[in-house]
Design brief:
This protein is an alpha+beta fold and 249 residues long. The protein is built from 9 helices and 8 strands.
Amino acid sequence: GFTLSCDDPSLGTAGSNLVLKAAVAFSQAMVGRPGKLRGAKFTLEKRIPMGAGLGGGSSNAVAALRGLNQLAGNPFSAAVLAEIAARLGSDCPLFLHDGPVVMRGRGERVEPLAPQAAARLRGRRVLVFKPGFGIATPWAYAQLAAAAPAGYLPAVEAEARMAAWSADENARAEDLLFNNMEPPAFRKFVALPVLLEQLKTRFGLDSHMSGSGSACYALLTDSTPRAEIIETIQAAWGASALAFEAQLT
């Protein structure tokens, strides 16, 4: 009894879609519990592009879980929903949380960032920009795995960086930014590092790739020439490039 329609014809609406996988997982978890969910019709307005490394599909799946839980009378606690979400994808549990978090393990261990550290992020403006092409998540992770362990930041070092940054009330968010998925992506998709270096040279902008790419992002300040930066992005990547501003909450 679960169906999905989408305004983006390139997105599959069959059983492989994460929204429908979430619905099936929720239905299976309901077996043996009071109440029954006969089905649901999902309508997806695709706003986060595919192959961007922005968690669009995972956030859709968690939105479906939350909606189904509400329709069924909230039979599952947040902890149970997190267990279901973790089976759908490593980053899915993230979207059950509001505000900055720290993720560990394969992404299923999520805890809020310390309040004093989170306050340094809240309200920051961020520019997100993406070229006309995407990067397939399975390919990106396969490249990273092939480079293991050299491609990974050791857990001890990562924890030390996080602890030092959290304890330093004067530390900037930019000081912590790091993405070990950039090297393999940059070797194949050279348009990414070429533009990021250009933004660094011209505007002093510290940009990074988001997740497995191809979207990138940069934190802005009040003096950042936003319009000029967007013009530079579109000049480098063409009219198909996307660029939009968001705010950290």
